[in-house]
């Protein structure tokens, strides 16, 4: 167990195809943490852990790896490079001391590179940049470096320089220890030194006074400067050819941020009024940690990945979950190496481990010492925006699909499922279409479950806009006891959101009291299917004001039937309309797409509510019918080349324009006829 100052956690993030996984494998091989190297392109890389990753040859999850260098433990978190799997990137960054943003020397800054930079900035995580694939045919170190300074930060400073870009790339040279005849390195050395010592007033004064600064002092100052953001070190590498990898490992051990010196802030309890409390990242502090990933393994069962934030955790101690206030004995404590687990007895500050067979642990849960409880702020994930209605392909698999969706939603905070009350459809939602495709693959592989999907039905509602009266007499005689019920009702529109209200206005006993609840129940059954277009009816009041009964033939069933028919006839007289769900849509795009986005919004019947600017990013806020944005993820990606983001929140319901309502009504009737 390494101490906190010798434990470093590096999250590798970037755009898909930038070489993160290949670089991770090279770092592990150089550190002798693995005995052989595989390949991403043929699916043999140790960085491809799950069956889906091997098949697709891309990283889909936050995968954990361990290495040692000069007595230091280095934990690498290889994050997905595609925006559909941003949950894995967020999980990696939430458990990291340093974000290593990987940028291809050929492709330069790409869509997800920008997203990762914004994420790192918002989370306030120290950052370094690896310019990868330096041996590529079109590699351009200086061009990419200039783009980084222009787009991200002028604090980006080369820590090493390449001898060349492209196939001739064979070595890197340290800017701080370059030979005197290396003009470019010497020109950058003073700039880098000043940026490093800038975070320490005493060292800055000594440096300007030309006092000698020891390597140990410089290493500590360098770590402080990275943490403070005055330096964003840039390192050229080739994971494929193992160039720059050894040097990078040495820099991590000597100068990159560690787990030491951190103060972790949380609350003493789950209530809003509970006091704030802290834990220092030291071995003698009370134990605390946070779960950042949960997965299901067919052999080990449920695995919960967590990082120790303070104190030491021993496998002999039951794990205490502060969210539910419960201690549970664990099935095992492991250190993770991709798809393999090594059993360990204890973990110290900064170390990442996994525990098995504790079913009630969720992502973001705080694990802590039972006698010194603390609850850390939950990890924030984006709301999934792409939805599909799903049903099992085979009859009888309803329970299986429920089990599968429950398991997958526990693993991935950006994948949710729910039963749509208005349409009765089972809806699964994710970040994008690729995300949902992978989830369906997992259902098939893990649960032997195939599903049918379709675009979800928009949950329209029906209401009335005028008063109306209705009378219905139900009479049936078949020999013996018959059926009889007669009712008079009045329908009155209510305010939006009022729902359904029933009022008994019977006087003189024209309907006995014991039959009046049956009238109410009959109407409630009828409104679930509406009367206008087959959608649930809302926001109106029904007044029962007269009726008739028969002493022998009247019963509850007869009054329920009469109520249903009276409601349907009265509803159609009361000038019915369709209501559609309206959502608040917030779109973030580079400013050059503003014209296309606003034009597209008008085409979707959207009403723009406001605009904001955040640097080169424009944020458009609009109110839009849900029906117009059910496939917005794909369409926004098409308009912006993948550079746009959006969020949706439910707002209210509004009346559907007449010409659109007629189309919906006609379609609904066709569907009902086909079902019959």
| Total strands | 35
Distance between the termini: 68 Å
**What is the alpha-carbon Rg in Å?**
32 Å
Sheet with the most strands: spatial strand order: 16-15-21-12-13-20-17-18
Poorly predicted runs are none
Profile the largest sheet. 8 strands, antiparallel
Taken from the alpha-carbon principal axes, the silhouette is elongated
Q: What is the overall number of helices?
A: 16
Tell me, rounded to a whole number, the average pLDDT: 91
Secondary-structure class = alpha+beta
Beta-strand content: 25-35%
The helix content is 25-40%
Walk me through what this model shows:
The chain is of the alpha+beta class and 676 residues long. Helix content is 29%, strand content 31%. It has 16 helices and 35 strands. The radius of gyration is 32 Å and the shape is elongated. 42% of the residues are buried. The model has no long low-confidence stretch (mean pLDDT 91).
